[in-house]
Design goal:
Layout: H1 5-15, E1 26-30, H2 34-46, E2 50-52, E3 55-60, E4 63-72, E5 77-79, H3 81-86, H4 91-113, E6 125-129, H5 137-148, E7 153-160, H6 163-173, E8 176-181, H7 201-209
Parallel strand pairs: 1-2, 1-6, 6-7, 7-8
Antiparallel strand pairs: 3-4, 4-5
Length: 212
């Protein structure tokens, strides 16, 4: 169990420390909000830039916690077609959700980055980080979005996630996967943290500014 996201980030940085002396340029991309706190520690340890990679899951009608897909800020989308079909999710619902979250992610990008330019990722090693992964939908959307931007190499890094998701799903999306805890029996990301309070927009902005 991790004390909090800062400790998880420091442990994740230790697992990635071999990258610090790599000649290739590296950028750390965090999935807000909680992933930013974790990613800041990695960026600090590796002495590399930190930026955000905004994604959001698309929840099922009447059950927003059940992910039927996800969308990234550049419009990259993924959907569980089997689940959507089995739940008989109307196409109009999906289109409305996508439209809403594309607008909302653009707004959040402006809030979090402020006047700072987006960090370049083309031909760089990109490390995409969240504070944990469950189904993997938002992280997969982030990885595919980042891959499409022309990165040289793509790394997915999380403190915790279910073994099946790590081995069967993420390993197909990234060139390298770092996960500190990958239990077979997995219930929720927060169960692996002693302190797992919601991260505010203000904390995200502060983390983005005070990386070094």
């Amino acid at each position: 169990m991790f004390l909090d996201r800062v400790e998880a980030g420091r442990q994740l940085a230790e697992a990635l420390i071999d990258l610090r002396d790599r000649p290739d340029p590296i950028v750390v991309l965090a999935i807000p909000r909680g992933g930013v706190v974790v990613a800041r520690e990695v960026a600090r340890a590796l002495h590399v830039p930190l930026d955000i990679c905004l994604t959001h899951k698309i929840g099922a009608p009447g059950n927003p916690e059940l992910a039927i897909g996800a969308v990234a800020e550049d419009g990259t989308t993924i959907f569980d077609e089997f689940l959507s079909h089995s739940l008989r999710v109307p196409r109009q619902y999906i289109e409305a959700e996508l439209q809403y979250w594309k607008i909302e992610l653009a707004r959040r990008a402006e809030v979090y980055r402020g006047s700072r330019a987006r960090a370049p990722v083309k031909d760089r090693v990109a490390i995409v980080i969240d504070d944990g992964v469950a189904t993997g939908s938002t992280l997969i959307a982030a990885l595919r979005s980042t891959r499409a931007a022309g990165v040289k190499s793509l790394i997915a890094a999380v403190p915790v996630g279910p073994r099946d998701t790590i081995e069967r799903v993420l390993s197909r999306e990234a060139d390298r996967v770092e996960c500190l805890r990958a239990p077979v029996d997995f219930y929720a990301v927060g169960a692996f943290y002693r302190h797992f309070e919601q991260v505010s927009d203000e904390e995200v902005i502060e983390a983005m500014i005070n990386v070094q």
